[in-house]
Amino acid sequence: MIEERDDLYGAESAQALAAEVYENYKQFVNPPLARVMKISGSPVEVRAEGCTIWDQSGKAYLDFAGGYGVFTLGHRHPRVVAAAREQLERMALSGKTMFNVVLGRAARRLAELAPGDLQISFWCNSGTEAIEGAIKLARAATGRAKIVSTVDAYHGKTLGALSVSGREPFQSKFRPLLADSVAIPYGDAHALERELSDAAAFVVEPVQAEGGVNIPPHGYLQAVRELCDRFGALFIADEVQTGLGRCGYRFACDRDGVVPDVMTLAKGLSGGVIPVGALIARAAVWLRAFGDAPLVHTSTFGGSEIACAAALAAMDVLEEEGLVARARERGEQLLGGAQAIATEYPTVVREARGLGLLVGVELTHEGYGGFIIPEMLRAGVTAAWTLNQQRVIRLEPPLIVSGAEIDRALSALGQGVAAAYEKLGTLPTDSAR
Length: 433
Ligand code: PMP
Description:
By secondary structure, the chain is of the alpha/beta class. The protein has a domain at 78-320: Aspartate Aminotransferase, domain 2.
């Protein structure tokens, strides 16, 4: 029961809890965010399990925002929670002066699952840190500085990752960013050919997630592989959001059957229980960069026992529960349903596209989204914008989602789109971001 769990976190009522959180956000967390969340009717998350989040009043929401890809195994998968709990009783964080058993095992397991000969991994705590590591590794391995990235990419918000991410409003206050970073159109191998000869690396998402769920043409990553080989630049695949089953492949690179030189991971890697990030590189590349300098790239919290124990359990669950195949199957159901809604309301939805359980619903006008997402929330389903393309609503549920839950989410989306059409009519087509 709710009372027994104290889902009100000691507050006297649901209203009191909501008021307390809002005040804290307004004064101590992020005043403008507090305002935006209040206007959009954001409730307070108090508990989560599987595909469901409960708010302060006990209302359940199907989580189709999915923590932007964190909750591949759903919330609090019992095997991951048990592994983390067990590790907590032994040793939570690494003392760093001695060998760490669980880090060694997690690194070995990741190398077994990763494509081709990707072998040596560096463990950190977030996606952006994994990208920072990959950029440093590329510079050290090649002796070159330039990093090529793609327009509309999203790789994170620390300064290096931000320099290779493609949204002006996120960058403008922080210039100058990393020198020698160049963005080319996504999916365009000819543009890459023109930029690569003096580059340390090309960093690319196998599917651009925050850029609006953009899927490159088949063969693009093979062309990337060939060009990187020809010019001696590293191929960095950012699988922070697409990796570990999300796209119906173990890694989205597998769709093109390519092995990058470096792959970055985070989000789903530790099963949605403990923060984690990692990069994994080919041994020769890693050794060329860091082989003579064991402490040149480190992290105090990275590779902690508790995160690695969670990651080990999460990798086992992914494989043993057949979640990669499941993502592909359920992804077809979700995409098919979203496309049917697009066909019914072409003046509101321009297109639905996706790979596995990463589906983007592109609207004809950004204004519709501000109506549809709150409407879905009222119907008990979370969804979210993509960060670099506000005209696209992403649907990114846990890979354990059931067919019936997908039907419920589609029905909420359909209601939201219908309500937006009734309320707002036909808005002019929008090219804004
Ligand atoms: N790379 C990609 C592809 C991402 O989608 C994200 C986060 N949306 C990041 C990197 C940054 O990850 P984090 O927020 O954990 O720093």
